[in-house]
Amino acid sequence: MLRQDGFLTQNGHSSNGVTPRITRQGASTRAVHGGTERRKAFHALHTPIVQTATYTFANTQELVDFMEGNIWGEGSDREEYGRYGNPTVASVERKLAKLDNADAGVLYASGMTAITSLLLSVLSAGSHIIMTDDCYRRTRQFALTFLQRLGIETSVVPMGDYEAIEAAIIKRKTRFIVSESPTNPYLRVADLERIAEIGRRHKVRTLIDSTFATPVNQRPLDWGIDFVVHSATKYLAGHNDLLAGVVVGQADRIAALRDSRGILGGIPDPNTAFLLERGLKTLALRVEQQNRTATAVAHFLESHRRIERVWYPGLESHPDHAVAAAQMSGFGGVISFEVAGDLHTTGQFIDRMQIPYIAPSLGGVESLIEQPAIVSYYDKTTEERLALGIKDNLVRFSIGIEDTDDILNDLDQALAGF
Questions:
Q1: What is the DSSP letter of 225?
Q2: Which domains does the chain have, with CATH numbers?
Q3: Which of 82, 176, 244, 318 is deepest in the core (most CB within 10 A)?
């Protein structure tokens, strides 16, 4: 039985037979122990990789008992087929839920599969959703193309304009308010409590993509948000070596999503789940280091003569600094900034950096750097990019766990040489 502090005990009791005291564990303790059984198969310390596509039954009566729910009670990992569940996957789902203070979570093959499966599972033809304009471009693309083909309408409103969100609600049609916090690439931070209040008042569900924050820095469910999605590929796994996504929320809503996952088919494999659970155990340590370094880098860049602007919610100059300071315990490991120069000059600066790799993605132990105008919008002209809010001299820097001074020194030499 799962204890409310994130641990599993037999029959809900400690070894001396006394019901354990409910306590709130810290982020690192939950990352290591939350949702994990103390005694695992074969007495292993780590959750074993259950590498199977199907599951067997001793006899017909056992199968009938399983189908009627008479054996392996609530919360069991017992399944009849691999598309419906896996013990290794279930273990990491419990841990992810505990980290976000959720009842339950459902794991998917990627972050995009998580958000698309959630919307496809809940929306029907004639529905309407509201999305902020700084959401991940592929999420917006899915809503404005694929959902539109299914007769589902999307209104895109400016990030941070809560009056526009409320004005966009269509009575009896709007089903979701979708936002990201912090956003990509400008690290805009949504007022989660305000979005949740608007959703409750209008009976509209709310969804926050919290990938950039992680549960260490921000837990949107604590502010009244209905669903939280993460690209687990990023900070949660933390090593740039797997693809996964997760949705967490209330138990009944997540149960419905798990059922629909068996139909839509976005199943993560047990090897990926094992690697993700291993990565999660160091999540808080990694994020704390990334928070520290990113804060130092943001202040360094803001005072540098070759930098025109820095976007980081930990800076007072950021438009959402007050909101971020109120609802986040750390400001994250991603910084966006504008170099004093054009597309070519900005590329020269990036090429002079020695520590970060030039690559998309974020949240891993290695620092990554990119020029969004080239990585994500290469097919657009400068004018088209500007219309989307992407400048040619914009740089996105995802801080890894390297030493802070080394990254600062690397930036210093790169900026001095162009």
A1: -
A2: 1-39 (no CATH), 86-280 (3.40.640.10), 283-416 (3.90.1150.10)
A3: 244
